[in-house]
Amino acid sequence: APYCVVSHRRWCPGCRRDVDEEETVMNPEDEPVHAGCGWVCLESGFDEGLPGSGRCSGPDLALLHGAPGSEAAWIAEQKKILERLPGGRGRATAL
C-alpha cells in the first residue's frame, strides 16, 4: 500500500547542525548555502536519482488508477498499520 514518509535534512558542516530551509539560499550551482555562515549544506534524504524512486507498481498502481476495491484494500492496510502501533487501536477506529 502507498505510504508517504518524508525524511530530509540539510546539514551545515560549518555550524555542525541541521538548518531549516528558511536559513538557506541556492547558489548558481543549485546547491543550498547556509545564509548564516556561507557553507554549502549537505543534503540527506529522498533522492529522485535512485533507481525505482517515485515509481509505483502492482497494487499501489491499481490504487492510483482507481481500480475497483483498491481504495478499500488500502484503507484496510492502513488500519492494520495503525493497530500495530502502541496505542493504535483507538486511532485505527477512526478509519
Features:
two-stranded antiparallel sheet; 95 residues; alpha+beta; 5 strands; elongated; three-stranded antiparallel beta sheet; 3 helices
Structural commentary:
The protein has 95 residues and is an alpha+beta fold. It is built from 3 helices and 5 strands, in the order E-E-E-E-E-H-H-H. The strands form 2 sheets. Strands 2-1-5 form a 3-stranded antiparallel sheet, with no helix packed on it. It is elongated, with a radius of gyration of 20 Å.
Low-confidence stretches: none
Helicity, as a percent range: 25-40%
Structural class: alpha+beta
Proportion of residues in β-strands? 15-25%
Shape: elongated
Largest sheet properties: 3 strands, antiparallel
Distance between the termini: 15 Å
What is the typical, i.e. mean, pLDDT? Answer: 79
User: What series of H and E elements makes up the topology?
Assistant: EEEEEHHH
Count of DSSP H/I helices = 3
Read across the widest sheet, the strand sequence of neighbours is: 2-1-5
- What Rg do the Cα atoms give? 20 Å
Number of strands: 5
Looking at the chains present, what oligomeric state does this protein adopt?
single chain
